[in-house]
Write a structure and sequence with these properties.
The chain has 207 residues and is mainly alpha-helical. Helices cover 81% and strands 0% of the residues. Keywords: Cell membrane, Membrane, Transmembrane, Transmembrane helix.
């Protein structure tokens, strides 16, 4: 029971990091670079459809795919994340925390990737475009970081359609940074796990 509570708290914290990245750093500067939250923002800007309705719709579709194609454990964790994400995104105010555009771009990309990584560590997701990378990795062996980049290409096209090539270019750069930070987090995690395995082995040999 205690481990389940810790896992759910870790899941909510991961979702919160993504919401912070969007509402404090990226969206206040009209940087729609990643995730279903950015898709909701772009569709709301272009076609005046409430972004939270868009997020709910996409998340429900992704839940169906997770149920059909992924492990039941991932589906259960995705249910919680998919329900929590639109709620936290709506509750967290959209505030321009920093007026420096480039710093906000980097920090927003960093926190977004950290949130995704935190969810992937426990086999969970906040729904939306974080589901396809899990499917791509399971069925096609494509790395999660690359999967995140591929599934966010639609956002680049939406930026191009709704804004201009400049916003599309910035979106692409932010998505690249998210993928880059994801690779860094994964390498650190792999090194940490390898070090733990060595320590366990050395302890066993001493005993």
């Amino acid at each position: 029971m205690e481990s389940l509570i810790k896992k759910n708290l870790a899941l909510l914290l991961g979702v919160l990091w993504i919401c912070i990245a969007l509402n404090f750093f990226l969206l206040p500067h009209s940087i729609a670079s990643a995730g279903v939250g950015s898709i909701g923002y772009l569709i709301e800007t272009g076609w005046s459809i409430n972004r939270h309705i868009v997020v709910w719709g996409i998340n429900l579709l992704m839940l169906a795919l997770a149920f059909l194609l992924l492990k039941r454990e991932v589906f259960v964790n995705t249910v919680i994340g998919s329900l929590a994400f639109p709620v936290l995104l709506a509750l967290l105010p959209e505030i321009m925390l920093l007026r420096f555009y480039s710093v906000s771009l980097i920090l927003g990309s960093f926190f977004f990737s950290f949130g995704i990584f935190s969810l992937y560590k426990i086999g969970a997701s906040n729904g939306g475009v974080t589901i396809p990378p899990l499917i791509l990795e399971k069925y096609y062996g494509i790395r999660k970081s690359s999967g995140v980049f591929l599934t966010n290409l639609i956002i680049i096209l939406l930026n191009l359609l709704i804004f201009s090539w400049q916003e599309a270019l910035i979106s692409a750069f932010s998505i690249y940074m998210i993928a880059f930070f994801m690779r860094c987090f994964m390498r650190i995690e792999q090194k940490t796990q390898a070090k733990k395995a060595v320590n366990v082995q050395e302890t066993a040999e001493l005993e």
